[in-house]
# Entry
Amino acid sequence: EPALRNITFEPRPGTATALVGPSGAGKSTVMGLLALFYRPQKGRITLDGHDILTLSLSDYRGHLGVVFQDTFLFDATLRENVLFARPDATEAELKGACLSAHVDEFASRFALGYDTIVGERGVRLSGGQKQRVAIARAFLANPKILLLDEATSNLDSESEALIQQGLERLLPGRTTFVIAHRLSTVRSCQQILVMDKGQVIERGTYAELRDLGGRYASMLDQQMLPPS
# Structure
């Protein structure tokens, strides 16, 4: 069975596209294809008119910044885990990325600061702290294309608000794809795709989909978001 069917959309450069819908709708499959974790069996994904399968994988991925729900950290220092995105970054660039992602707030509590060993898979950090490290990596990578798959899912409301502020500084000038169950996080996206059973069933801006009275409007009602 194909995971996706008749998926067609065009994200304009420098804009944000949100993918929303129930679990199993195909959102993460779209992200996996964009990251070239696997190849489409049919159809094409093009970047500036070029099929991404014809591009060098390392060159293509060099333009990607990825923050997934499950963050992988190495059994190394906090500094090394952030620098994984760009090992040649300066100390000032590292600290700037960590400041934007609010990593500095918890790093300063460790006796060794950024030289603290985080443990296997980041066992010494909370889920929200690990997520902030992943977001700091994205800041440091300075990518042209940004993939955010539930990037703030492990954060409490206060931390999520701080990270959203940081992401808003990161997004301009980049082509961004966002998966989010909290619909409050995608209001400002220029394009929202509502997915179900591997297909796009609605598309538009937040206001257009809210006024349409369809699936997205129903999801808004369930989350009881106040009108903007």
